[in-house]
Structure formats: C-alpha cells, structure tokens
Amino acid sequence: MTSYINHPLLKKDAIESRLYQQILAGDVLKKGNTMVVAPTALGKTIVAILVAADRLHKVKNSKVLVLAPSKPLAIQHEASFKEFINLPCTSITGAVKTDERIKRWEESRIISATPQTIESDLLNGRYDLSSVSLIVFDECHHAVGSYSYVYLASRYVQESKYNLVLGLTASPGSDKFKIKEVCENLYIQNIVVKTEDDPDVKPYFNPVEIEWVRVKMSSELEKIKKHVDKALKIRLKALKNMGVIKTVSVGKVDILNARGRIQGEIARSANPDKDLFQAISILSAVINIQHAQELIETQGVQTFNKYVARLRKKKTKAAKSLMWDDNFSRAVKMARDAEKHGWEHPKLREITKILKKELGESDGQTKLKTSRFDDKSDENSSKIMVFTQYRDTLEMIHQKLEKEGIKSAKFFGQAQKDGEKGLTQKEQKAIIKSFRKGEYDVLISTSVAEEGIDIPAVDLVVLYEPVPSEVRMIQRRGRTGRKRTGRVKVLVTNGTRDEAYFWSSIRKEDRMKNQLIDPDVLEELNASATERMENEKHIKVIDRPKQENDFPIVYADSREGNSKVIRHLTEMEIDVKVQSMAVADYQVSDEVAIERKTAKDFVDSIIDKRLFKQAQELSEEFKRPLMILEGDDLYSGMINPNAIRGSLASIAIDFGISIIPTRNAQDTAAMIKRIAVREQNGERTPIQIRTDKKPVSLLEQQLFIVESLPNIGPVNAKNLLQHFGSVANVFNASESELQEVEGIGKKTAENIRKVIDSKYLYFQKEIKEKKLL
Questions:
Q1: Which among 59, 161, 181, 263 counts the fewest CB atoms within 10 Å?
Q2: How many of the other CB atoms lie within 10 Å of CB of 282?
C-alpha cells in the first residue's frame, strides 16, 4: 500500500513517501547549504519541494526562490510546486512585464524564475532577497564564470536573514577544480550523492541498459578520409619543421595550445616575424581539417559537405588554402559524388534498422508493435529519442526516417543556422506536446533536450555519437528509464574518435563520483564555504529604495545588463539605472559617455568594421566621449598588432575619444565610479539619456528638441509644433496656451514652463565659486 508524506503545507496524498528523498531533504535542513547530485529520474525536484515546505512553515512570511537556466524549465518548476504545495506560487521570466514581475514577487511565497531576470530586477532595485528563506539553484553546474547564479548566490548570502542554499544537478563535472568552483560560488558546505545503486533508491529506480552498437566505416568514407588525412599531415609536417609542434601526432588540444603560444609571441613583438602569421594560418587550417575529419568519421558525407559549403564562404587565408589544396579538393569532390549516389555513413543505416525493429515493420511500412499509441497518455505509450551533436546530422536523420515511413520530429535550439530559423520556445513546447501525445514515433534532438525539458517515459534513447562530456552523457541517459526500464543505444564507429569519446566520458564519470565522495574534498569545501559566507556578511549590499538616494548615478545600456561591471558598480554605492541607450554603454552626465570594450570585442569590432562607426556616433553625440579598453590580452588574437595600434591611434586622434585601459570588470567599475563622482561633483542633477541618435534632418531636429521637454513624447511633440508652428513659439507659449494643445494637461504645462524658466543651477554655483576665489 502506498503511503504519502503529511505536512501542513503539502497537499493531501500528493507526494509518495520515499525514504531516500526524505533523508536528502533532512540532510539539507540539518547540514546547511547542500548540493544534491542524483540522476534525473530520482526526483530532485521533490527534495526541493520538501525542503521548501519546511522552510516556509518554520520561517513565517518568508519566500522560496527556485532558479532554472531556461524559461520552459522555470515554468515547469512552477507547475510542480503548484501541484504539491498549498501556497501562492508564480514564475518570473523575461517574458513577463516589469510591473507584473514586481506584483508577482510581492504576492507570492514561491517564485520560480530565470536567473538573468532576477538579477536584472535586483540591480534595478525592484525587490530584494531579504525575505528569501531558501534559494534553489537547479542545474547548479552552471554556477561558473559570470553566469547569473554566481552573482545571485553572493547577493543572497549578503541580503537574506535566513540563508539556505540548495543546488541540484545530475553531474557537476569531473574536473575537481570545476566542482570546487561551483561549490565555492554557491557557498556549498555539503555534497550528497545518490545513485541508482544505493539500496534505498533501487526499489524506485528503473535500471537503464546501455548497449554500444559498433559499426565499420564504409570503403567510400575511408577513401574520402584518406585524402583529408593527407591534407592534415602536410600541414602538421610544416608546423613541425617551423618548430611550432614537436611531433605530428597531436590532438585538438595540442593545436589550440600551440596557437595560443604563437599568438602570445605576436603580441609581445613590436614587429612580429612573418613566419608567425604563417604559422597561425596553418594552425587555423589544421583546426578546420581536424573538424572535417571528425565529421567524416562520425557523421557522414552530408554533414561534411554542408561544413565545406560554410568554409567556402569564409574569406580567411586558412579557409582559402584548404579550397586550393589538391588532397582536400579531392575529398570534397568524392564527398559530393557520394552524396549524389546516396552513399551514407553506416550509422544512418544502423539507426534506421534499430528504429524499424523497435517500431515493427510489415510490407515495407513501419507500424507499431502494439497499439501503444492508441492510448495517448504517457503511462501507456512508448517513445524513442535520438540525440545528435550537429543540426546538419539531425536534418539528415530526419530526411532518412521520413523516407522510411517513420514519423519523426526535429527538436533544436532557437539560434538561426544557414538561413534556417531556430525553434521558438512556443514551437518547442508544441513539438514536445505532440510527441507526448504520440503524434510522432521519434524525437530527434540536438543538445537542447539534454537538460530540463520535461519528456517523461522515453523508453529508448539512441545516441548517434558518444560525447566526451560526462555531464552530457549523464543528461542524455537521464531521458530514459523514468517510468519503466530504460534503454540506451550508442552508435560507435570502430577506430575513430567515437571510441575515444566513449572511453573519455566513462573515465570522467568515474572520476567525478570518486571526487564527490572524497572526504578531504568535502572538508575543504565546507571550510571554504563557511569562510566566504562569514566574509560576505560583512559586505554592505546597497539597498535600493524607491525614493532617490545621494549616490552618484550611472546609466547603463540594457545590453550590459548581465555584465560583471554592473554587479560591481552596485557594490560600490553607485545608483545604476539600466535602460536602452542608442549610443555608448554607460553615461554619467550630459557630456560624458563611455563605450566599454573588452580586448576581444575591440579586435572583433575592427574585423567586422563596427569600431569606427561606433566611434563616430560617440564623438557626434557627446562632447567628452570615452572608451574603456578592458583586459590585457589585446594582442593575443590573429589580427596584426599594427592594425590594432592603428585603430587605437585613429580612435584617439581622428575621433577625439580618450582611451582608458582597465584590467578587468571590477577595475572598469571602479573607473566608471571615479568618472561619475568627478563629473557629478556631489550634485544629483537629471541626465539627458540618448535613447535615440541625434536627428539629421531639420524636422527631426525640431521634434528632438520638443521631445526633450518633460512628459512629451513623439505624438505630443508633433501636436505642439503643428499648433504653434515653430520651436520658438512652443518655448514662448504660456501655460494656458500650452493647455490648448490636445494631450497637454495642466501638470504637463506647469512642468514645461518650469524647465524653460528655471535658472541654471550650475551657473549660480560657478558664480559663487568665482567669488570665493
């Protein structure tokens, strides 16, 4: 007989009583900030719900914040919490308007949200985390670098009166330093690992059977690969003769390291040797060839041909040299012929064979073995997922299955590629819904379905290729075995990278498990997290009341919304206001605006010719424009250092823009603060923000001037000019005359006259200072 958990805040008979989930929740509540590492099907969300119910019951009027990396996952968590807890629950994502987000935050006890949206709202002072008694970081392995999880964890331990952090993940990674970074960033003191082999888990866990399906590369592909190998070997020999590499037996990592080393030599030299640039070009070609090799070995000629088509469009010396190379050209011609003749990678035939066998076949037409799709519910329908690394391969598999009469759906991300639009979240949701109902036999997906997408009861997962990442392998496996025994089939081409990736993922997974249970690692993490939490408590978090304060103002463009610079500025007693700006990234006065460029962005903007256009707009819009150049790796790219020096000289001399170097984001924030303090000189005066670029035509200029008046938008500006006939007449009109214009009320008229008639306060201040002198 099934027993259920009873709790004042949990709905009756809603959560099945599973001992391991209760133990996990108890560990979090007793031991403090915890990372729970468990396979997808073990119900980590239920653990979060149990912990949330306890915190909300014991800490009166507090809130729980659940964070997830994507909008669909955030909404999915909202639904889960609503299903089990008797308290107001909502979701906050970028799709929700600002006023509605504030309302939802104030009215709800449980908020499921995307981290970027919460970060933006906190930076703009819309609410704070002081009343949050539990913060849940789902897929917490994302908490590295500048990802929003890092800032939110820091902000939480500073602001909240009742700290408790819960991180959830199927795998934090195999690298000890990555695990440590995640734990330190989230102030994790305790790691709990649950696997399908644990005695208390086994009764609830459906085993996953993994089968490695080996295929032999076809003779046609071997011939194509032979020519690609020759093109690679020639270039590796050249690099060895140049002293760039020691042996021709090198992998992708070795080539990337060599390129970084050569780029460093170029950066350190005022007049770099031409051989260094030649080496960079050859190294780039080697990287392209290595990728082409991988596609031939593991994907097939169609994917290879599409990659070559993209290479043809590139104008780099490395890409052109490949197109002129006899060996590579032969490989390209053979691959084109192979595709015309319908020659496929053996994997494509094998995957078709597997799916036909699974779905059943009769008289050349696929049909289901049973009437499993007659019942459209998840409980009674079997589903198959196919994962592949490349969207080109996804399209190839889809076309093959359609020809074979197997109904399949393509599932990929939102990015556009080669003219094909990505799937919107709405379209993704519709595809998953159709797949759940049984309208498709197979769902073919890229990595987008590895994490967080709610696809229950997938009985078979087929991996077109192994991936070297243990995180991704674990996540792909986690798509099956949720409601019955799961199966995974992994296609491996003998003697290729497939085998290397297969063994790499296994080694990394074993290493991850060993490190997670290492007592020395756990003790080190506990001490580190405790120390950091104590330190953070002494850091002052700037409260952002709705009324104005006396802090210097810095306006930041909305595109800088997730940058570390804004985070650091808020910690430096700066009133940061994020909004859309037509020109510059930051503005501190009517005359001073700052364009911030990292070293990489500066070089990229030279290449794509954005730099001088941005510089021109900056110098035209502001009297004293500035450019902050952030980072010390300006000369580490492939572009000639003299081109960079010439661009810097042009920015300073031709456009009159002062260039200020900074080391990193924190240094940039400190510099912007100093500029703001100096420019505003203790006075909090309104700053005219350029939301549009300066007008060019006379009509545009007239509208621009009138629109600068208080509460006047484009419509009212046009009405005023039509009524009075000129800008001068608008400015000379009395309050009563202004009110004759449609849309201009008494208050607006008063404010317009006040701005026009008021004395210039800075002018009065200058007179006083001169008298004192």
A1: 161
A2: 24
Q: Label residue 626 by pLDDT band (50, 70, 90).
A: very high
Structural domains of the chain in order of their starting residue, each with its CATH number: 19-204 (3.40.50.300), 208-215+351-494 (3.40.50.300), 219-340 (1.20.1320.20), 553-680 (3.40.50.10130), 698-772 (1.10.150.20)
CB burial readout 376-394, b (16+ within 10 A) else e: eebeebbbbbbbbbbbbbb
Note the pLDDT of residue 627: 95
d(Cα 566, Cα 554) in Å, to the nearest integer? 9
Q: What are phi and psi of 35, to 5 degrees?
A: -105, 125
Reduced to 3 states (helix: H, G, I; strand: E, B; else coil), residue 382 is coil
Q: Strands 486-493, 458-463: parallel, antiparallel or unpaired by DSSP?
A: parallel
Between the alpha carbon of residue 501 and those of residues 317, 454, 568, 743, the distances in Å are 31, 27, 40, 67
> Which of 410, 390, 388, 389 lies closest to 399 in space, CA to CA?
410
Q: Which two tokens stand for residue 40?
A: 């997808």
Give 47-90 as a DSSP string. HHHHHHHHHHHHSTT-EEEEE-SSHHHHHHHHHHHHHHBSS-EE
**Closest C-alpha to 71, from 496, 601, 426:** 426
- Rounded CA-CA distance 392/694 in Å is 44
Which H or E run includes 137? strand 132-138
Residue 771 CB neighbour total at 10 angstroms: 7
- How far apart CA 542 and CA 682 sit, in angstroms, is 18
- Say if residues 186 and 143 touch (Cβ distance below 8 Å): yes
> For residue 35, which of 184, 166, 204, 220 has the smallest C-alpha distance?
166
- Going by DSSP bridges, is the β-strand pair 165-169/132-138 parallel, antiparallel, or unpaired? parallel
Residue type for position 190: N
Give the pLDDT confidence of 652-679 residue by residue, as tens digits: 999 999 999 999 888 999 999 999 998 8
CA separation, residue 577 to residues 32, 313, 394, 553, 617 (Å): 35, 42, 44, 7, 22
Nearest to 638 by CA among 201, 267, 134, 233: 267
Of residues 666, 710, 680, the one with CA closest to residue 550: 680
Give the Cβ contact number of residue 428 at 10 Å. Answer: 21
| Inter-residue contact 447 to 386 (CB < 8 Å) | no
The whole-angstrom separation of Cα 77 and Cα 442 is: 26
Q: Which amino acid is at 432?
A: I
Alpha helices in 160-273 (DSSP H): 176-186, 219-241, 252-268
Identify the DSSP state of 425: H
Q: Residues 741, 719: contact at Cβ < 8 Å?
A: yes
Give the separation between CA 383 and CA 373, rounded to whole angstroms.
Answer: 9
Confirm if 578 and 566 have CB atoms less than 8 A apart: yes
Give the three-state DSSP class for 256: helix
Indicate whether this model's pTM tops 0.85: no
Residue 773 tokens read as 């002198």
Kindly report, residue by residue over 58-113, the tens digit of the pLDDT.
999 999 999 998 888 898 899 999 999 999 999 999 889 989 999 999 999 999 99
579: left (phi over 0), alpha (psi -120 to 50) or beta: beta
Residues 130, 135, 136: CA angle, nearest 5 degrees: 170
Q: How far apart are CA 75 and CA 88, in angstroms?
A: 14
Instruction: Report the number of secondary-structure helices (H) and strands (E) in the chain.
Output: 30, 21
358 with 462: CB under 8 angstroms?
Answer: no
Q: Which two tokens stand for residue 662?
A: 């900074």
416: helix, coil or strand? coil
CA–CA separation, 221 and 227 (whole Å): 10
